[in-house]
Amino acid sequence: MSTGHSTLRNGAWIKHPSANPNSPYTYTPEQLQLYLIEIGFISPNVSAEDVKEKVKPTYKNLVKILRAHLCRFAFENSEMHYSPTHEVDVTPQGVFKKLVEEKNGGSLCFGTNGLLYAVLRGLGYRTYSGAGRVNFSTTSRPTYGPLAHMVLFVQPFVDYTLDGEPIQDPSQANNQTYLLDTGFGSPGLARPILLVEDENDGEGVLGVNRTERHRLRRGTGDGDNIVSSLGPSPEEGSNYSAQVEVELGHWVVQVWHEKEGEVGSNSADAQKEWRIVFTFSETEYFLQDYVKSSTATCHTKEGVFWNHILGCRFAFPGPGDLSASTPVTTGKPLVDDDEYDDGAELIRITYFFNELRRQVGGNKSEVIKKVESEKDRVEVLREAFGARYDLDEAVENVKGRKPAFA
Q: Which DSSP state fits 89?
């Protein structure tokens, strides 16, 4: 059944991945096994043949996989400055080799989200990928970049109930749709968010902890040249009708950060502080779109990625949370620990403006290390994000580029 609420436009359903077996976002059972071991979801003694029996495409597993993925794989752009090609391979196989097999750093949104997309498909989740535009403005009026951000849509209740039981009666299937994003950094999403405006009475969902929340709103938050077929005619000089947002599937992700003295994101003062993170539509995009976008991102001589080396990885707070070591090498408990539940708090480890920070709340962070040389930065990238570079090669490859130290 269609809920008529929290669904894709017109109540659309996402096909089962078996309907598109030739998708480039396809991993073998052995690759799924390695990935799940890498994020600590299964133990190494679970065979590749048993993975799908062990990990059902339920909502609970979706939340756990997403949060473990965020804590294991960084969103970072060092490769576009420190590698000899100055490009980032965001193909599913290229990303798997670098992040899972070689355990070498992170990737852009096209890489981290693409990795998760292929894994979810392989596990039987009904999912597809979309695209958005990042808001670079700090004011109430958004300033969007190009269509160069990847997001995922998932319908976890078509085949399984919230309790994880198989749905036998097709009339009980539910096409509620969630948005996922592992490739934004700060202040990006920290958990799945339902495709609806009024989730939790407008409070949205938790970010890293209680001092940060995210919510969705229909629209782009900007002017447009399209009016709704249900609204006033263009000849009447009407303003942009909100109804077109429903017809075209336009949304914005907003973030709220608690300030000292506020009691919640619905307080009178806090209402003014919701800020647009990015806008997206429900249109499906494909690998070739992301490959071209990645190439453009790496070679466009302007913008945050061109001017800076940056990174972000989530972690569970506690001893060793700065380390990018894998669950396998650290002996960290597997994902079925309580800390991976939807309500457990996280922190962000960020590198930007030559500072490594530990972000413990919405706007609260502490400087861990000030980076003053390429040697410092190479060490920080290795320790915090698992990105390994030979210092001499890194210095040579970044020479003459914006982020290079003088």
A: -
Q: Which of 220-234, 282-296, 338-352 has the highest mean pLDDT?
A: 282-296
For residue 126, what are the β-bridge partners? 155
CATH class of the domain at 9-224+249-257+270-398 = alpha beta
Measured CA to CA, the distance from residue 172 to residue 279 in angstroms comes to 32
Structure tokens at 180: 């996922």
Q: Are 230 and 243 in contact (CB under 8 A)?
A: yes
On whether the CB atoms of residues 76 and 315 are closer than 8 A, the answer is no
Tell me the C-alpha distance between 258 and 178, whole Å.
25
Residue 182 in contact with residue 313, Cβ under 8 Å?
A: no
- In 3D space, the residue among 157, 260, 271, 116 whose CA is nearest the CA of residue 203 turns out to be 271
Of 275, 53, 59, 278, give the one whose Cα is nearest residue 163. Answer: 59
pLDDT confidence of residue 243: 52
**Token pair 């070498």: residue:** 104
**Parallel, antiparallel, or unpaired: how do β-strands 355-359 and 275-281 relate?**
unpaired
Domain segments of the chain: what residues?
A: 9-224+249-257+270-398
Task: Answer for the pair 351, 379: CB distance below 8 angstroms, yes or no.
Answer: no
Instruction: Give the pair of three-digit tokens for residue 204.
Output: 């949205």
What's the pLDDT score for residue 169?
Answer: 94
Residue 370 has a CB neighbour count (10 Å cut-off) of 11
pLDDT above 60 (res 199)? yes
187: preceding bond cis by omega (within 30 degrees)? yes
Q: How far apart are CA 327 and CA 333, in angstroms?
A: 7
User: Virtual CA dihedral for 96, 398, 372, 363, nearest 10 degrees?
Assistant: -50
> Hey, which residues does 251 pair with through a beta bridge?
218, 280
Beta-carbon contacts of residue 92 (< 8 Å; ≥ 6 apart): 24, 25, 26, 27, 114, 115, 117, 118, 287
Mention every residue, 6+ apart, whose C-beta is less than 8 A from residue 49.
Answer: 29
Q: Report helix, strand or coil for 121.
A: helix
Q: Give phi and psi for 51, each to the nearest 5.
A: -60, -50
Per-residue model confidence (pLDDT) at position 239: 45
